[in-house]
Amino acid sequence: MEAPPAPPPALALHDVSKRYGRHWALARLSYALPQGRSLLLTGHNGSGKTTLLRLVATALSPTHGRVEVRGRDCVEQRDAVRREVALLSHASFLYEDLTAHQNLMVLARLLGLESPSDVADGLLVKVGLTRRSESPVRQFSAGMRKRLAIARLLLKAPAVALLDEPFGELDPAGIQAMEKIIGELKTSGVTVVLATHLIEQGMSLCEERLHLAEGRAVAA
Ligand SMILES: Nc1ncnc2c1ncn2[C@@H]1O[C@H](COP(=O)(O)OP(=O)(O)OP(=O)(O)O)[C@@H](O)[C@H]1O
């Protein structure tokens, strides 16, 4: 009997380059992250981490090469990939005039969840925002926005969670809560790709590491 085919990598980069104008942000990057593993992305400011995460999130397209999520091409199968990935980024894309609770309700309804209000309440407890759940987001601090953004990511329940500087702007309690959430994502089988300058924290959460320097993979 033939062995079943091996599952495709959670994330595969095939000779990926990305150019902004005349500047190459990523250059000929190849990498494969096996399913069941999580990836720590490191590198100095401007080394290409955010660019790579945005390519995987399908917010950008590569100039050359191919990016695949669980065997699907991020350009040709963009919609399918978008259903599987979620990006926690610097720009949090929250609705400023809606409350924290309403922000989560918009997505919960879009996803057709049962009892969306209860789900939103539960997530606001998890990220420590219950006391401000009825405040409009425009009144939120940077750390509060980050907390709400991770709640929204959890609501989407992605197969691959792309976390760009998830600890930035958070207070010590927020960092602890974020570490717990990342641990829970991993336990529930989500592939985590984590870009951070907090290398110790990142190393304790991820099994694999990709270190970028000027858009190329190098030994850390
Ligand atoms: N929209 C853009 N237009 C032009 N150049 C860009 C754009 N976005 C990023 N770059 C450039 O691409 C390179 C990689 O940037 P990127 O944001 O991916 O790095 P990073 O590793 O995430 O940095 P940081 O640690 O500061 O967040 C940098 O030289 C940056 O100036």
Describe the protein's topology.
Elements: E1 11-20, E2 23-33, E3 39-42, H1 49-56, E4 64-69, E5 72-73, H2 78-84, E6 85-88, H3 100-110, H4 116-126, H5 142-156, E7 160-164, H6 172-187, E8 191-195, H7 199-205, E9 208-213, E10 216-218
Parallel strand pairs: 3-8, 3-9, 6-7, 7-8
Antiparallel strand pairs: 1-2, 1-4, 4-5, 9-10
Helix pairs in contact: 3-4, 3-5, 4-5
The structure holds adenosine-5'-triphosphate.
Adenosine-5'-triphosphate is lined by residues 20, 23, 25, 43, 45-51.
Task: Give your account of this protein's structure.
By secondary structure, the chain is α/β, with parallel strands linked by helices. It has helices at about 50-55, 80-85, 100-110, 115-125, 140-155, 170-185, 200-205, and strands spanning about 10-20, 25-35, 40, 65-70, 70-75, 85-90, 160-165, 190-195, 210-215, 215-220. The protein has a domain at about 10-95 and about 150-220: P-loop containing nucleotide triphosphate hydrolases (Rossmann fold). The protein has 7 helices and 10 strands. Strands 6-7-8-3-9-10 form a 6-stranded mixed sheet, with helices on both faces. It has a 4-stranded antiparallel sheet with strand order 2-1-4-5, with helices on one face. A hairpin with a 2-residue loop joins strand 1 (about 10-20) and strand 2. Helix 3 (about 100-110) packs across helix 4 (about 115-125), helix 3 runs parallel beside helix 5 (about 140-155) and helix 4 packs across helix 5 (about 140-155). The protein is globular and about 45 Å long. The model has no long low-confidence stretch (mean pLDDT about 95).
